[in-house]
Amino acid sequence: MKPIRLISGFLTVGFWTLLSRILGFAREIMILALIGPLGGADAFYAAFRLPNMFRRFFAEGAFNAAFVPMFSKKYEAGEDPARFANDAFNGLALVVLALTSIAMIFMPAFVWLTAEGFYGDPRFEETVGYGRIVFPYIVFMSLAALFSGVLNATGRFATAAAAPALLNVFAVAAMTLAYVLGQEVVIWLVWTVPFAGLAQLALVWRAADRAGIRIRPSRPRWSADMSAMITIAIPAALASGVMQINLVVGQLVASRTEGAVSWLFAADRLYQLPLGVIGIAVGIVLLPDLSRRLKARDDDGARHAYSRASEFALALTIPSAVALLIIPLPLVSVMYERGAMTPADSEAIAWATAIYGLGLPAFVLQKTLQPLFFAREDTRSPFRYALGAMAVNAALAFGLHPCIGWMAPAVATTAAGWIMVLQLALGARRFGDVTRFDARFKAKLWRIILAALAMGGALAILAQQLSDALITDGIRYAALALLVFAGMAVYFGIAHLIGGINLKELRRGGRS
Fold it and tell me: Domain locations in the chain?
């Protein structure tokens, strides 16, 4: 994939992911305003965590690591990729349907294991009820992830990147309708989740059909390819499972403080915006590209792709992290504080946002480092590294809770993220020159950091000047927009002038 074509893929996925994240913000704003941390949002978030957790086990973890590289190689070589995809589809469907059946029966145990602090108050029974409604979402989303992998491997990024936005579109529409009709908003929201999953599956299924990859339900068939994929997928699923255990540990600690589950979830949405737009976009585009290059023994091309992906990711991530550290309260208060949300809630979310901001570069770098292993079908090493990160996360989350309370999970997540990056970077050295950044990356990195620091100073000064406007109804949205766009202008202007970013290259990538 040529440099401009690679950047074009990043921008395509990034654009649709950004749109989805913006709609996700609208969803979270409505949940916190119409339901509130103390009005049922804690229960909804804990219930919704369950299908998302297992989705990352079976879909994003296992299939990104195992299915995508194998499918990419078969597609490139013309080795009947559709048959392989069909076998993978039927095997995955069997697993997630069995899991859903088990979850429906043992939902109280699932809730107790993931939100033990709810036990003994009304949130527990609410979460169990909501969990039984939303859990079938995993069936649709896991299968949608497979179709998205097919589309990404064939270079059709737009539909797969756009599909997740449907959940947020459906959720916003349902909550708006419930509010207008005077109905219970949380009930409408909960029932919307599985239907949104079905719509996402239908969208990517149709797109795969149009791409010429015809996949249909049939009896699962065991084959040598399935055996090879499972061998790769199990460590990948376990590695993703370790990361999900980190999230569960955080929720377990947070569930001991009323409202904290919602605070952490809201902060998570803020840092997930740049993570999703940048890190996930880069990871999605980079993995199939590396797989094809390594199969063709194009090590120089693989090194170039890895360096450009990391350069692109850090050029957008570092300033995002600085912004989350410098202006978390203005971001949170303007975006979330209304209805059932109080200033105390905003302050709590702002603290968590700043802590996550410290870890944002680590979370994004994981997305560029992991494909180096997955493209070689090595999923065991990331699993071992994830175990180490999990130990750090659990020790800090439980160990710091007596000292800093509900914020301990945020500190633990950030620390574990950097530990994971360190392990991945050291472990990737054995792959040789492919994993060493080229001279262009090294020349640009310090310029990117310098421009981001200049932007941080400008944001701090401007936020102080706009402090009254940022808390005044009617103009606070304009004040925040001014703050954000001024920060972007300072960063991109300085970065372009000193050679950290080539804006012409970005524009060409966007038109490719």
Answer: 3-437
